[in-house]
Task: structure prediction
Amino acid sequence: MDIRVLLIVQEDSAKKRYFEALENCGVHVFVSTSFQDFSQEICGQSFHGIFLDLPTKIKALKKNKNYVYGLLENFPVSHLRINDDTGEVHCFHVGRESACTLTDFIDNECRHFVPRMIRSDVRREIHFNVRLYKTPDRDNPERSITMNVSKGGCFLFSVQDWKIGDSVWIEILELSDSHPIIGSIRHIVKWGESRRIPGIGVEFQHISESLTAELSTL
Result:
């Protein structure tokens, strides 16, 4: 399988070191110097995971935290840093208490992930009151809120058990159209596994034109 990963790193010497290490792992590496520098080549590819230089992430969070987290929640993400004394590349990611190697992350996370393209629309921090349903008959709803929303999806607070690829029916109370939005779960943050808010990243699959228009105005 051709594993394609996106490396996001700003500093040139770190870029060279990371690129060499990843090429030795047998993956196809695409490089971006920032979260705003996505070329047509990058936007036209689907990726199995993202390798992110930690200093680059810290700088980006100061400028646009919502966009950074909105992008990263859609992919397996490994954070990278270089040991100043040894030059060794350290690899770690959310949900793992101990460090892992580049190969571990590629084999255990990237290889089993259905590749996705970089999302072009920006999610904004809007908190709607929501009822979540696991079935189309809309029984036993979970009360929730949106943490962020875009034209194509949202991230919802949830502590239920979900699986990647599950369908979810979303009823947003603030919208006048009562028809549910049908979405597909693309990302999960489980309760207790990290310091992030638990929930599900959802891509909208079926949404009415009136709901799309109303969301755009809000």
Q: What stands out?
A: The radius of gyration is 18 Å. The first helix runs from residue 12 to 23. The first strand starts at residue 4 and ends at 8. The mean pLDDT is 86.
